[in-house]
Structure formats: C-alpha cells, structure tokens
Amino acid sequence: MDAVSYKKFHESFMQNNNGSSILEVAGVVVAPYFAIFHCLNLVLVANIVSTPLKFLLEFTTIVLLIIANVTVANEYLPVVVVTLIVASVAAAAGQLRFVLHEAPFIQIPTTKPEFITITRALVNLISAVCILAVDFQCFPRRFAKTETYGVSLMDVGVGLYVFANGIVSREGRQSEEQFTWKKFRKLAISISPMIVLGMGRSLSVAAVDYHEHVSEYGVHWNFFISLALTVFLGALIVAPIREKDHLKFVAIVIVTIHEMCLQLGLAPYVLSDSRENILEANKEGLFSLPGYIAIYIASMYIQNCLKWSEPVIKCREFLLQTAKMGLISLCLWKMVYIAEEMFGISRRLANMGYVIWILAIGTSMMSLLMLLELGYYFLKFDKTKSDECVHEYAPIIIKAINYNGLIFFLTANLLTGMINLTVQTMLLDTISSVAIVVAYMLILCTLQTILYVYRVQLKFW
C-alpha cells in the first residue's frame, strides 16, 4: 500500500471507537499486580540474586503478561485474571500462616515506600506497551482511545500519568510553606523538558506527515503539553493553601465547575468538528485541562493521606492506612457508576466521570500494592530485624523504569515512531506483530536496566 493510502487507512482505523467496559479495563490494569506478586515470590523461594536472571524472570512474568493481555490473550482476560487471583491468594495463605503470629513485631519502613515506586512504574510500563501495540491489528479496537464517550484501556494512560505525578509532587508535600520566586523558577525548570518534548513532537509529526488522531488532544497539542501545564497550573493553584486537608475540596470545586461548564454548552463545542482558528484546533487539549488539574490536586491529597510521622511503623498502623485507602477506592468506584449514568465518562473532555474513574483505578492500584508491601515484610521478617530494614524489594525492571521515568517514555515514543515509519504495522499478521512488540519492550527494558545498574540518571532538572 502506498504511503498516502496507508496513512488514511491507519487514521480511519483509529476513529469512531466506543471503547470497552469498566471491568475489563480494570482487569488489564490489575493483572500485572498479581504477576509482580508471583515474581517476588519466586525470587524469595529460589533465592535469586543474579541481576540477569532476575531481569529474565521479571520480563517473562510481568512484561510478557501485559503484552499477551492486550494482544493474543485479550479474549481470555477474565480467565487470566481469575487464575492469577486464585493462585496469589493460595500462595499468600500458604506462606503467611506461618508468620502471622509475628505481626506485633513486624516493622515497615515509610521513608521511601516501594508501593509508590511500583505504581508509577506500572503506569509507564503499560503505557509503553500500548502506544506501539495499538498500531497493530492484533490490538483489540475496544482498547484504543474512545472518540467521545466511553472507557478504554488507552483512555487510562494520560489520567494515570497525572495521578502518578501527583502522588510524588513536591508542591503537594510542601503545601504549608510559602511559595517564593525561587520555587516558581524551580517549577518552571522542572516542566521545561515536557514543554520541549511537546513542541518537538508537534513539529516532527508535521514534518514527516506522521499519522495523528486529531481528536485526542487537537492539531498542535499533545500528551507532553497537557502533562506540563497540569503540573504547572496545579502547583500554582495549591500554592496559597496552607492546610493540606483542604486539597480535596479544591479538587472537588474544580471538577464541579468544569462539569457545569460542560453541561451548559462547552461539551458540544469541544466535541464538534469545527477547527477554524488556533483555539478550536486545540480545544480538546485546552478544555480538558481542568479535569487533569483536579486529578493532580486530588492525588496530592492522597499523597498527604499516606504520610507517616515515623520512619518505621508497626504493621498494624500500615494495615489501617491500607484499609483507609481501600475504603476510599470503594467509595470512588461507587461514584464512578453514578457519574457514568449522570454525565458519562469522556477522556476527550476529562469530565467528572473521567476524573472519578481515574482516581478509582489509581487508589485501587495503591491499595493492592500496599498489601503487597505488607506481605513482603512479613515474609522477610528476618531481614527487617537487622540494619537492612529499608529493603528495596521492587522488581529490577520496575526500579529501572522509575529511575529514568521520562527517558523511558521518551525512548518508547521514539522507537514507536521509528517502527511506524519503517513498517506498515497495520498490514502485519499476528505473529509478526507480537514479535515486534516483544522485541521493542525487550530493548526498552534492557536499556533502562543498564542505566539503573550503572546508576546513570539522565536528569538535569
């Protein structure tokens, strides 16, 4: 197929998608959690210390599972998830029953929680798989981004990126301190790489006539610009707030006003085909910002909910915080179905339904990974009694991704562009498609792991 015809075919293939179901999307996002549990379990049981062996085990159990779930095994996703859950519960019950009596003595470090590291890296990992896999026909169309309303796996991406940035936000941690010019300058420098990447992406897409789904963000707008402006504006909004508990009210006010504007006529305008000026050309990116800012500020509030006054706490206190996070998650899921009935869920608008849905998924991931952290310290009680109390148990691929998070995502985007410019991905058979995605992820994960092992952090801001 010639280049012009293929570009039209590719763009038409991405349009008019109505999405998947809330339950199916949750299944794809949650499945890697159980894979991580079994991976850690195997490392503990087999006492694997070799980095290459750990990498091979993790790539096979975690990365390949994600690839399979969004390609060849997507029809069997319920079976995969249920099997992983049953196997995880059985394994946990079999091992924890011998150490539960030690609960009063278990201590858990809180200085650098590993569950936050894993949450952020998983968002990056799933997104990296999907941004290339979506360009192959083996990737189910229901997982691609929705056109107007609905939910899909790729709709989760930008929202969870905002959530992942909010739970580690410096501004969220320092909301009681005065916002000075020095902090403003530091904030501007911190978002500068994303602004540069956003402008670079827009220029390169136009230069090579790369296929682009305009209704995602607009003509010139893109993910990097949305994320940069969300972080910048979110930090400015919370700067005057001294009481951290008030962050949740700020998020509620922003998303409520945003939804009111959408209901009063903004939604039809954003979803229309009119693009007569620069504002209309980028209306999706511009008018979805309030929704992303609400997610960002709500994530800051969640960050403050997970703060402990001591560097090491007893497992009972950690379990209570886990239960609190789980309760927040359950309340949000109830609100998701109410909001879906009232307003619908739209990534393109980042409306109230979308904001609540993203927060529900994010808090669910956090709750499960907090349970994983608790279980790990039970099984490693002999280590926590020594000077090795703070132990980085996260899989090496996960730590490597988190170590150079922006570089990982940038490399993923560059490799995706190179593959699409050299191969007509939509015309390939399933075996070839999956092989390319596996090779792409192997290259990505290997590069990140090498950088992590040699402690090379490509960050200047």
Automatic annotation (TrEMBL):
<dbReference type="Pfam" id="PF06423">
    <property type="entry name" value="GWT1"/>
</dbReference>
<keyword id="KW-0472">Membrane</keyword>
<keyword id="KW-0337">GPI-anchor biosynthesis</keyword>
<feature type="transmembrane region" description="Helical">
    <location>
        <begin position="149"/>
        <end position="167"/>
    </location>
</feature>
<keyword id="KW-0812">Transmembrane</keyword>
<feature type="transmembrane region" description="Helical">
    <location>
        <begin position="187"/>
        <end position="207"/>
    </location>
</feature>
<feature type="transmembrane region" description="Helical">
    <location>
        <begin position="246"/>
        <end position="266"/>
    </location>
</feature>
<feature type="transmembrane region" description="Helical">
    <location>
        <begin position="431"/>
        <end position="454"/>
    </location>
</feature>
<feature type="transmembrane region" description="Helical">
    <location>
        <begin position="286"/>
        <end position="306"/>
    </location>
</feature>
<comment type="function">
    <text>A acetyltransferase, which acetylates the inositol ring of phosphatidylinositol during biosynthesis of GPI-anchor.</text>
</comment>
<keyword id="KW-0256">Endoplasmic reticulum</keyword>
<feature type="transmembrane region" description="Helical">
    <location>
        <begin position="400"/>
        <end position="419"/>
    </location>
</feature>
<comment type="similarity">
    <text>Belongs to the PIGW family.</text>
</comment>
<keyword id="KW-0808">Transferase</keyword>
<feature type="transmembrane region" description="Helical">
    <location>
        <begin position="354"/>
        <end position="379"/>
    </location>
</feature>
<feature type="transmembrane region" description="Helical">
    <location>
        <begin position="79"/>
        <end position="100"/>
    </location>
</feature>
<keyword id="KW-1133">Transmembrane helix</keyword>
<dbReference type="GO" id="GO:0072659">
    <property type="term" value="P:protein localization to plasma membrane"/>
</dbReference>
<dbReference type="GO" id="GO:0032216">
    <property type="term" value="F:glucosaminyl-phosphatidylinositol O-acyltransferase activity"/>
</dbReference>
<comment type="pathway">
    <text>Glycolipid biosynthesis; glycosylphosphatidylinositol-anchor biosynthesis.</text>
</comment>
<feature type="transmembrane region" description="Helical">
    <location>
        <begin position="121"/>
        <end position="143"/>
    </location>
</feature>
<dbReference type="InterPro" id="IPR009447">
    <property type="entry name" value="PIGW/GWT1"/>
</dbReference>
<feature type="transmembrane region" description="Helical">
    <location>
        <begin position="20"/>
        <end position="43"/>
    </location>
</feature>
<feature type="transmembrane region" description="Helical">
    <location>
        <begin position="318"/>
        <end position="339"/>
    </location>
</feature>
<feature type="transmembrane region" description="Helical">
    <location>
        <begin position="219"/>
        <end position="239"/>
    </location>
</feature>
<keyword id="KW-0012">Acyltransferase</keyword>
<dbReference type="GO" id="GO:0006506">
    <property type="term" value="P:GPI anchor biosynthetic process"/>
</dbReference>
<feature type="transmembrane region" description="Helical">
    <location>
        <begin position="55"/>
        <end position="73"/>
    </location>
</feature>
<dbReference type="GO" id="GO:0005789">
    <property type="term" value="C:endoplasmic reticulum membrane"/>
</dbReference>
<protein>
    <recommendedName>
        <fullName>Phosphatidylinositol-glycan biosynthesis class W protein</fullName>
        <ecNumber>2.3.-.-</ecNumber>
    </recommendedName>
</protein>
